[in-house]
Amino acid sequence: MQIALLGGTGDIGQGLALRWARDTNHDVLIGSREAEKAAAKADEYESELAERGHDVDIAGLENAAAAAEADVAVLSVPAYYLSDTIDAVTDELDETVLVSPAVGMQRDEAGVHYNPPGVGSVTALAAKAAPDDVPVVGAFHNLAAGKLADLDADLDWDVPIVSDDADAKETVTALAEGIEGIRALDAGALANASEVESMTPLLINLAANNEDLHDLGVKFW
Amino acid sequence: MQIALLGGTGDIGQGLALRWARDTNHDVLIGSREAEKAAAKADEYESELAERGHDVDIAGLENAAAAAEADVAVLSVPAYYLSDTIDAVTDELDETVLVSPAVGMQRDEAGVHYNPPGVGSVTALAAKAAPDDVPVVGAFHNLAAGKLADLDADLDWDVPIVSDDADAKETVTALAEGIEGIRALDAGALANASEVESMTPLLINLAANNEDLHDLGVKFW
Predict the structure, then answer these.
(1) Cβ partners under 8 Å of residue A148, min gap 6
(2) How is chain A classified by DSSP, letter by letter?
(3) Which site in A80, B124, B140, B199 is 20 to 30 Å from A10, CA atoms measured?
(4) Would residue B218 count as lying in a domain?
């Protein structure tokens, strides 16, 4: 399978790219608004993996070119770039599953707060911005990017997944579980995305307020 | 310490009462709108503990009488009874810490959704309804009541705690950690309560959508 990380030069994209390239046989494509930046990052990820004995090819392309190749495209951009990123690739989406991991947050003196867009969640915003025939899946909202990108760190985290498209959900579930230490969980329909997204500010607040906790993820039982 | 479970005849109150009575030396008081109902439940909890070899006294009282005795009063009532319950005990609160575990939720065909009151969270609603000098702490929102009340079940759950009052937060943290298998975590100020509360519908949706999961709690790492 071809996985494009749109905005894959950022932190969450880096972690997913490195781990998919290391743990699975999928082809990983790094997308960026600038092809050169994408290519440089792809080289950097390849080098890091090579140093660890993993000989993999990672391509770096402009976002639209990456999306054109992809079976699954992950919108690994901040929430405020989400709609623009979808607009930029929308003509290239052909049976491509779009994955939205972004969360809208706002900081004040008390900490970080969930700040969803008017449609209820960032995942719902992605669905609204995407063409009607493109399935949108919400996933990977609650992964600490730093730990995810640190290949020395063993993960043991759950990834709640929401979508209105059962096939797309199944595809992304399998992709998520391809990463060592990730368990994908079905969190229901797209309408349930806000409860998944709002866990991210909670994780940040918990890390800020508890001395021994940092780079938090979550496990349900 | 005297702990009153206001509305302690309900499911979350039952679990907390049984576990505090079993795992700590605190005095547990069951409160209800009807003293007789409270007394009957207190007897029932005592019997269950006696069968397991724990000889403890649990008192059952009308809510206001229980609050009058209490150092800490847990508002273990559904969200829509919260304000009425506080009103009914407000004259009895004297350096009493009020604890709010309730969550506002709404169900539709997609699952359960977080449905906070206009003030932002049920915990904030409790703070608004309580007298100004009564510290309010949000805690115990994310515990599966059935498993909590099943003394055969070993817990391994985190309890995020929010409050604007550092002393009250410390008191409730110690109380929470008195229960075997509970780790209390500081989730910051009362303004962070909605991110804690909104995890409860997520837990319910995850249990509904994943075959092997039920009675879910959460662990952060």
Answers:
(1) A11, A12, A14, A15, A16, A19, A155
(2) -EEEEETTTSHHHHHHHHHHHHHSS-EEEEEESSHHHHHHHHHHHHHHHHHTT----EEEEEHHHHHHH-SEEEE-S-GGGHHHHHHHHGGG-SSPEEEE----EEEETTEEEE---TTSSHHHHHHHHS-TTS-EEE--TT--HHHHT-TTSPP-EEEEEEES-HHHHHHHHHHHHHSTTEEEEEEESGGGHHHHHTHHHHHHHHHHH-TT--S--EEE-
(3) B199
(4) no
With a pLDDT cut of 70, the percent of chain A lying above it is 100
- The pLDDT, as a whole number, for residue A219 is 98
In angstroms, the CA A173 to CA A16 distance is 14
Over residues B88-109, the pLDDT tens digits come to: 999 999 899 999 999 999 999 9
Is residue B111 less than 8 Å (CB to CB) from chain A? yes
Query: If we measure between CA atoms, which residue out of B69, B189, B68, B76 comes closest to residue B137?
Result: B189
Domain count, chain A: 1
Contact A199 B199 (CB under 8 A): yes
How many of the other CB atoms lie within 10 Å of CB of A207?
18
* CB-nearest partner of A185 from B192, B201, B206: B206
Residue A216 located in a structural domain: no
Residue B76 domain flag: yes
Q: How far apart are CA B198 and CA A194, in angstroms?
A: 9
Please check whether residue A155 touches B, CB under 8 A.
no
How many whole angstroms from its chain centre is CA A168? Answer: 15
Confidence band for A157, pLDDT divided at 50, 70 and 90: very high
Give the pLDDT of residue A217: 98
- What six digits make up the tokens of B180? 């075997």
Please give the pLDDT value at position B86.
98
Tell me if A215 is assigned to some domain: no
Predicted TM-score of the model (pTM): 0.96
Q: Does A220 touch chain B (CB under 8 A)?
A: yes
ipTM of this complex: 0.95
Contact A213 B220 (CB under 8 A): yes
Does residue A105 sit at the B interface (CB-CB below 8 Å)?
no
What is the Cα–Cα distance from A18 to A2, expressed in whole angstroms? 14
Q: Domain range spanning residue B112?
A: 2-209
Range 182-201 of A in CB contact (< 8 A) with B: 185-192, 194-196, 198-199, 201
Token pair recorded at residue A146: 């730093």
